[in-house]
Amino acid sequence: MHLDEHSDIPFYQQLFDQLRADIEDGTRPAGAKLPSIRGLAGDLGCARNTVEQAYHLLTQEGYVESRPGSGYVVQNVAYLQPTAASPACAVLLGSPARRARYDFTYGNLEPGTFPALAWRTITDDVLLSVESAGCDAYNDPFGEEALRVAIAWRIATQRDIDCTPSQVIVQGGTQTSVQNLLALFDGAADTVAMEDPGYDGVRSVIERARFAIAPCRVTEGYDAFLEDLEASGARLVYLTPSSQFPTCRIMPTDIRERVLDWAERTDAYILEDDYCRDFRYRERSLPPLASMDTRGRVIYMGTFSKSLSPALRMNYLVLPEPLLARWRELFANSYSPVPWLNQKVLARFMTDGSWDRHLRRVQAKNRRKYDALTAALRECMGERVEVLECGTGLHLLVRVRDGRGQDELIAAAAAADVAVYPTKKYWADPAHRPGGIVLVGFSSIREEDIRPGIEALARAWFG
């Protein structure tokens, strides 16, 4: 093993990757002991902290177990990641199906992204301080004040959104936020407009709440989108203007102004989901709708799932004053959906410099992945595909030009141990669903796996 001092990859991540590879290929078999932290640090000439963090990540991922008196012991990876069972058997046995060798999934983050060491340090500090008294009581149903202050300060200074901490409401993920927000509207009378294609997770929440949905086309030009919006009669519209999901398109400033004008004229509200604002690779971000709103018509929604951890289930809403009063009336006796400790740790993480350091690392890594993915597609597939992307987000769309459908393309990829994903579910109207377009994500795959994965995909699709 060696650590490359010239690499942008942190030492602990390099060590984690090498040890994980050794365990997966059997070089370090189940039952083998890893070197002691002190001994390996001495051999590699690095800090003990580096080895400790790599071992902690291996433990989190299930590759090793820490045993008192025995150190770190390699686990049975075949058991942790069953390869012999078929997906159907895996479902019956209650265990996860085997992941493809090259998994271009969207949503999950690359193992090791979560800043476990910093999070643990802050957690210990919170629990051993006077703040731990919060463990013994029900907490603010709208979120811990320290976290709401941190969020309000950050979006005011970095996104130019004029708000106070009292307008920030901490929630347990996008779907929970939308579900609760819909309680402020009338399902029997109010229509919700949505981009088409759009995020199916939000669509399913709206459907379960029995609201009528008005699809607004986003792939046929903004004139078609505005035409559908004007005809919708909607009281609320859900938008992803900074990186439209799933097309990654960026809504121009003049269209944002026209949407704001529509909301004021029709007494409607805009739910702005700014979920991927931190990840842009070519141009600076445009101002959020919420920063342009002078009429109290935009509900701003942010998340920590794409930059910190989807498992924490934390996001937030910023409500305009008219809706805030209604929310406080409806949810005054509710309990916060996010555990107190996670909120306290995140508040400290956002204010002690940890967040900025972590975000810079994640942004740099995703920029490298984006560059590697677009270059590999261009060089390995050329004119046989059309790459649909706008330099934003954590995925792109690929359209194969020869007329094959999604299912055929996904099946051919799977036979080559490559996972790419369907897009049909994002279109509300089956008549508008295009063929031959698949989603290729890069949030979870390792940077060094991108080119070999695309090479395998090119062989699977084109021979």
SSE inventory with pairings:
Layout: H1 11-24, H2 37-44, H3 48-60, E1 64-67, E2 71-74, H4 77-80, H5 87-93, E3 102-103, H6 116-127, H7 145-159, E4 168-171, H8 174-182, E5 191-196, H9 200-208, E6 212-217, H10 222-232, E7 236-239, H11 253-266, E8 269-273, H12 289-292, E9 298-303, E10 315-318, H13 321-331, H14 340-351, H15 354-381, E11 385-388, E12 395-400, H16 406-415, E13 418-419, E14 421-422, E15 437-441, H17 447-462
Parallel strand pairs: 3-13, 5-6, 5-7, 7-8, 8-9
Antiparallel strand pairs: 1-2, 4-10, 9-10, 11-12, 12-15, 14-15
Helix pairs in contact: 1-3, 2-3, 6-14, 7-14, 8-9, 10-11, 15-17, 16-17
Describe the model.
This protein is an alpha/beta fold and 463 residues long. It has 3 domains: 11-83, Winged helix-like DNA-binding domain superfamily/Winged helix DNA-binding domain (Arc Repressor Mutant, subunit A, Orthogonal Bundle); 120-352, Aspartate Aminotransferase, domain 2, CATH 3.40.640; 357-462, Aspartate Aminotransferase, domain 1 (Alpha-Beta Complex). Helix content is 43%, strand content 14%. The chain is built from 17 helices and 15 strands. The chain has helices at 11-24, 37-44, 48-60, 77-80, 87-93, 116-127, 145-159, 174-182, 200-208, 222-232, 253-266, 289-292, 321-331, 340-351, 354-381, 406-415, 447-462, and strands at residues 64-67, 71-74, 102-103, 168-171, 191-196, 212-217, 236-239, 269-273, 298-303, 315-318, 385-388, 395-400, 418-419, 421-422, 437-441. The protein has a 7-stranded mixed beta sheet with strand order 4-10-9-8-7-5-6, sandwiched between helices. The chain has a 4-stranded antiparallel beta sheet with strand order 11-12-15-14, with helices on one face. The chain is globular and about 70 Å long.
